[in-house]
Amino acid sequence: MTVTRMLASLAAISHHESRWARKRAPIRAAAGAAMLACTLGGCGSSSGGAASTADDARLARFFTDAEGRVLILHGANVASSAKTSPDRMPDFLESEAALLADEFGFNHVRYLLSWDGAEPEPGVYDETYFQGVEKRLDWLHAAGIHVMLDMHQDVWSVYTCGNGNPEWTVRDDGIPMEPTCRSTWSFNYFQSSVTRVFDNFWAGDQGAHPDLQQHFAAMWRAVAERFKDHPAVIGYDILNEPYPGSYFDKIEAGTRRSPKDGAPSAAFDVERFGPFYQRVADAIREVDDHHWIFFEPRFGAPGNGSPSWIPRIEDRRRGTPRIAYAPHLYSAIAEASNVYLAANDTVPAWERERRTEVERQDGPLVIGEWGFTWAMTDSAQYYVDVLDMADRLMAGWAYWAFDPGGPTSWAFYDRSTGTPNPSAQYLARPYPRRIAGVPVSYAYDATARVLTLTFTERRGVTAPTELYVGAHRHYPDGWHLESSDPDGSWSSSWDAAREVVTVTTPRTGGEHTLRILPGNA
Predict the structure, then answer these.
(1) For residue 245, what are the contacts with CB-CB under 8 A and spacing of at least 6?
(2) How far is the C-alpha of 98 from the C-alpha of 11, rounded, in Å?
(3) What is the structure's pLDDT at 354?
(4) DSSP element (H, E) containing 14
(5) In 62-191, alpha helices (H)
(6) What kind and span of H or E run contains 441?
(7) What is the pLDDT of residues 339-367, one digit of tens each?
(8) Are the CB atoms for 469 and 505 separated by under 8 Å?
(9) Is the pLDDT of residue 1 over 50?
(10) CA-to-CA distance for 137 and 519, rounded, in angstroms?
């Protein structure tokens, strides 16, 4: 293995120069141009369409950019504040779009939309709301961030002690809500009125309120039509954490008891959930044949490590499918106890089930939400376990959420002080952003501070690999880059502003391994 050394002075520049005062406009302009090319050139699809080598068959599990490089997504949800703001816009500043990219190395945002913002009255789409969304997409695009548009709901609507969906969609058959909302937000799902609202929605065309799913699919068609040409958009997340109504299995939620045969959750996934997702995906494809469509499991047990049985969602687009899986991850016992115990098996259980499900869909995996309060005992270990698992799965992720707050909260940034919180040390980890081929594996060892990427070449891909280093945070004493290729056959360049090293590897027809290590030796 040969070595090239990045001078300590480069790392020192990154470490000591003010990260808040740098001028980024030329960098952002270049990033924006690259994203526009990505959108127009086929971001998220195999360059040239069908697989051209044996390795290309594995590309079904990854997003790719216009140059055919695999795109790895690290980022955050923006933002929880959108759920309660009167205009349904997040508490998010233009400067904070750049902050996500520059300070944390993020290239991805899951952006919260709401049905009540998009369609406040039946068949009436709010252009003022869409313009507000577009404005924020412009900010994110300028920062080089790929955006998943997420149709967000929790407990259906404001009227039902939640958020997301318009009040005109509340079909409770006259069952009254309780006089006051329950103090734990998710417990409101178990109100009889709320359960009936969801049951009426999931009944679809076979129920008493067939217009509900018809309106929902039409709304998504309108959203896709409105944003399909925006260069920041990578795709659409159909519905956040859908509650299965009377199919909800309380025992499964607490114990992971989940046999497929006879399980209400399995019946819901197969009979209600799968057809619903297929319906909305088909509606989106009527107007947008290009972007990715994301779907996620039902609310509750899957996020805690239980299985999902959603059947494969078919993509009616021309060419290779662009359906991606975006499940959430939350440990029920850790949240209930505010302690992450060594015996907590949520992460391995979640990994096991998601491997099975992503095989069924044969598409990319993105953890659409995960997170917890930094004040939880052993929270740092939970960060490490989740992020190491995501590396093993070669999955993207979006942390919940970018809602600036104090250092013991869920937040990774404190707006009041203008500084990152301790959790940023884990979230802003080194990773391969773009890979000039098909990844075999990648991992960041936070203890040794070593990032390792192994990938195979892919015919026709000539653009370089990009690694986010995060030098000011992870390598204040300097760092160096190693390659498995012979000296003189490869080259690299360092962007101190973005903290990204770009590596051009030789065309050997085989594997390449790149490593970032601490120090200058």
Answers:
(1) 195, 196, 197, 198, 199, 201, 202
(2) 21
(3) 97
(4) helix 8-16
(5) 94-102, 115-118, 127-142
(6) strand 438-445
(7) 999 999 999 999 999 999 999 999 999 99
(8) no
(9) no
(10) 38
pTM across the whole model = 0.91
297-319 confidence digits (pLDDT tens): 999 999 999 999 999 999 999 99
- CA dihedral 336→342→345→350, nearest 10 degrees, is 90
According to DSSP, the β-strands at 396-399 and 366-367 are parallel
**CB 160, CB 249: distance < 8 Å:** no
Count of CA atoms in the C-beta half-sphere (13 A) of 66: 11
Q: What's the pLDDT score for residue 258?
A: 63
> What is the C-alpha R_g of the chain?
23
Strand partners, 108: 75, 146
Dihedral sign, Cα of residue 82, residue 86, residue 91, residue 97 = positive
In angstroms, rounded to a whole number, what is the distance separating the alpha carbons of residues 409 and 411? Answer: 5
Distance CA 514, CA 521 (A): 16
CA distances from 510 to 191, 247, 436, 484, 513 (A): 58, 50, 12, 11, 10
- Greater confidence (437 vs 259) lies with 437
**Residues with Cβ < 8 Å from 321, sequence gap 6 or more?**
60, 314, 315, 362, 363
